Amino acid sequence: MKILVTGASGHVAQMGLAKIAERHDLLLTDRACPKSLPDSTCFAECDLLRDEDDKLAELFHGVEVVIHSAYIHSSEKGDVYGLEPPQIDRFDTEMDNIRIAQRVYRSAYDAGVRRVVMVSSNHACDWYEHSQVHSRRRELITESDYPLSDNFYGWAKASYELLGFPYACGSFGRKLEVVHLRIGSPYSINAEKFLATGATQTTSLPKPTGVAGFKRALGAYLSPHDCAELFRAAAESPEIEGIDGVPWLVVFGISDNTRAFWSLETARSKLGYTPRDDSELLYADDIDRVLRSGRCSGRVGI
Question: How far is residue 151's CA from residue 13's CA, in Å, rounded to a whole number?
């Protein structure tokens, strides 16, 4: 297949390219060229927010699958704020990200693209985590839970998801297959960094600190291997089968973690996602050290 990958310089995209680069014809795009390109791939510079429609039409021409990973980070407002702005001041940036998502959907639709894979985030439903999982009133967040976020970043990701549904329904003339990957934490876990924070705080911060933060990282972990496997599964799944025949899916993107608090049921059953890694094994020495310290209890909460 010819696959277009946006935001190709980003961390998640770079992790996810490993398997599909070996199997498909990749066209990568971003505002700047990645430092390294997989063999047999092409790169085209593009600003998805500001470039003309004609340029996007050329970019999407002949593409069968789009993997949309491009994202404007709020830290780009640094010339105004000096530092990353507080959540309440991130609305305009996130609206631009939603506009980009719409341009991707529309360009894909107009170009006859079969499938759009949107790199979403667990933050599309992070209210459940912050208010229920960390307080140990809930064990698992599922794909069918209504997307609720307590911050503009997560709200924008949920908006990407809902924005794709009319395209998938066929309301505009044909059904565009849409898959949303709610990426967990695609970063290595530094146990010492978490433990050095000392006190555990689980209610007022988006992410818990201390031992609770360490346990949260174990549950949310997405390894490089499994990120690449998730991209492969989303791009190659023979069909996308959602509710009532609408080819629209939301799946969580984490490894096969013992401490997972997000469901992998849809990713496994609908996409054939087969994660290999488990943070409980990869970070067993760190876990043992925390257990011996006597500071650990429960699953994610304090």
Answer: 24
